[in-house]
Amino acid sequence: MKVFTKNIIASVLAVAMAGPAASKVNMHGVFASSNATFKIIPSGCPNSKVKNVESIIGFGSLSQPGLTFPHAGCWFFAGEKPDNEVIFLDGLYIEKKVSKDLTMSLTGESLLNSIVDEVNEHFLSEPRCDYVGDLDSDDFYVKKGSGKLSKNGDRINLNILVYGSYENDRGNSFVIKTKIQGKMNFNANTENPAFDCGELFIEPF
Predict the structure, then answer these.
(1) What is the residue extent of each domain of the chain?
(2) Residue 22: beta bridge partners?
(3) With 60 as the cut, is the pLDDT of residue 3 above it?
(4) At the topology level of CATH, where does 3-187 sit?
(5) What angle do CA 25, 31, 33 make, to 5 degrees?
(6) Rounded distance, CA 62 to CA 113, Å?
């Protein structure tokens, strides 16, 4: 289990022990944007930047009967690129500053099936990338996961930064940065797929 996710889980448990309090993270709808960006920035290889990604992010509750997590829960992201390919991400979140700043982790499955797959696809489609083979999710970790809510909670600024590494065909090691960024407005009329976290995080990465 990665250190970032371990810290998130520890924070969630600490919040639960602190007792109930009201959270202002709105779960009865989603935050949406039509101009999010997805960037892949590998050293030793041309960058990739996809703009105008249609995106939604929703937040859900981890609370169970007799146990409350007032400032923590799960989140789900879906972003459709202009080529109709969809990126799915999910993870846990904790309110770092109550009702304003969220610290967000990624599950191993979404890291592997979305971030790593996108980087692999970029390497294969870019002839100037000196790399052949499949990347491993163990070579990637969340450097930063944050969501900054506006004062009234109707807008969020999403910033996900994932670091990784790869070796080229000559055995040289390079760093890969992957960024997902977007300012998203709250939409109460869209169903939130993360409203009930369910059993999503029984086996966190």
Answers:
(1) 3-187
(2) none
(3) no
(4) Porin (2.40.160)
(5) 155
(6) 24
